[in-house]
Amino acid sequence: MKRNVTILSDFKGKVAGSVVENPNIAKNSINPSLQMPSSAIFNDLSSAAYSWIGKLDNTQFSPQTEANKYISQVLLSWNVIEIVERQYPTIFQGVSTVAEKVDILKGTSQQISLNAYGYASGAAGNSLKLSVFVDNNAWASGVAENTINSIKQLRLSWNTKSLISRIISDDGYIYALTYAPASDGTTPSIVTIDYASIEIVLPVSTTIGDVSSPCKLESLSSDTDYTAKVINKSGESNESTFTTGKKEPVEVIVSMDLKNKIAGSVIENPNRMTRTAYTNLLSPQAITIENDQNQYNGIMNLDNNLYSQSTNVNGNIFQVMFSWNVVENIEKQYPTIFQKAATVAEKVAKLKSLTKSINIKVHGFASGAGEKPNRMILARWGGIYSWVTGQASDATTVALLQGNLTSDAQINSSITDDGYVYVMAYAPASDGKTASIINIDYASLECTLSM
Ligand SMILES: [Ca+2]
Ligand SMILES: [Ca+2]
């Protein structure tokens, strides 16, 4: 019985100089011409640099050169045989040589995609290019390119046997090159890579032995194509393909707020509210002053009992942040939902796949100096690691500000790697005389899940 699986590989866990933890290799060089994968000019990355490109987290590897006409280039060597064999060893059952394994990959892969997240610049401006090595002898002329000066996903994808055959090299690797425009001796050539990965889609077979007729299988995934054939003493049947049924999804809403919160404890309620006053909006990690019990009491209910705080330091913005521990709130309500997820990363991936919308709600008002003295603004942590501002209000009494996030891009960028959604509300800055004041009556978050 066969079904298609997607195998993802990247540089997570890579130790420089070793192919035990992770079989892929990345190298960099500076040279006036694009180097072939076998070039001795390339140097293997350090373990630190591997950790920078092993995760999409805004830490990057940025090799550069100021030498005239030189190009900063990073080679990504994907050991596709090892990647597939470590997850699905039966795919190569009965064969032992690299050439035979390469033939199996060329014959069975349904789709192969390369991803690189980054940007680059040189004398000719902003341009990060991603190219693949074809026919064992050249970098393909068709490239993916990012011409903006910030991180963007580059993706190359192939889904026909003839194209896939050209990108898998005889040694069982797929090679990709990312590179910047050349330096002119003044403007450096810089490549910045935040993360890189490869995806391989291919069919995986399972043999189910010693069964009586009829054979009933309970463990099949829903909405998946399978092919099956029967093998018995009199021979093999033809393959037949079927699609398993779709499960009707049920939508549920998980709401969270700060009711029953005990200051300093995350047992009764795993969510938190913290604050700071500063000249710009700080990142979640930097907003650390937590409410005391009296302040928490003010925001537990929509009851006109307010949390109010202010600063009159010139230029400072009073900002409060709600840390919604979405993974834990959902797990409390549906204890088996993350049953198959062992790590936080796996729970976050599952959560992203289940979430249909995230509705952020903050009831309050604010004041300060400047042209809009009563403007309170709502923001969420997202995009690529920055606050994304949403609804604003100029009310002078408690008003509801909300943002309903419904697109995959909004949802995926709002749920952070630690399983939280971070929400901020902030006041106009103080000018040293008029204070920057924030008043919150109640805050909550609703996640709509499809399960
Ligand atoms: Ca990174
Ligand atoms: Ca209240």
What would a concise description of this structure say?
The protein has 451 residues and is mostly beta strands.
Describe the protein.
It is a single chain. The protein is mostly beta strands and 451 residues long. The protein has helices spanning 47-53, 80-87, 98-108, 161-167, 293-299, 326-333, 344-354, 408-414, and strands at residues 2-10, 25-31, 43-44, 64-65, 71-79, 111-122, 125-126, 128-134, 138-139, 144-146, 152-158, 173-179, 189-205, 225-228, 231-232, 235-236, 240-243, 251-256, 272-278, 289-290, 307-311, 317-324, 355-367, 376-382, 386-393, 399-405, 421-426, 436-450. Strands 1, 4, 6, 7, 11, 13, 14 and 17 form an 8-stranded antiparallel beta sheet that branches. Strands 2, 3, 5, 8, 9, 10 and 12 form a 7-stranded antiparallel beta sheet that branches. A 6-stranded antiparallel beta sheet has the order 20-19-22-27-24-25. The two termini are 27 Å apart. Residues 298-299, 301, 303, 305-306, 441-442 line the site of one calcium ion (CA). One calcium ion binds next to helix 1 and strand 13.
Number of domains: 2
Radius of gyration: 27 Å
Mean pLDDT, rounded to whole units?
94
What would you call the structural class?
Answer: mainly beta
- Major pleated sheet: 8 strands, antiparallel
Bound molecules: calcium ion
Q: Helicity range of the residues?
A: 10-25%
> CATH class of the largest domain, please?
Mainly Beta
The CATH architecture of the largest domain can be given as Sandwich
Number of helices: 8
The separation of the N and C termini measures 27 Å
Low confidence ranges? none
> Shape, please?
flat
CATH topology description of the largest domain: Jelly Rolls
Q: Kindly report the oligomeric state of this protein.
A: single chain
Strand-residue proportion:
35-45%
The tally of strands reads: 28
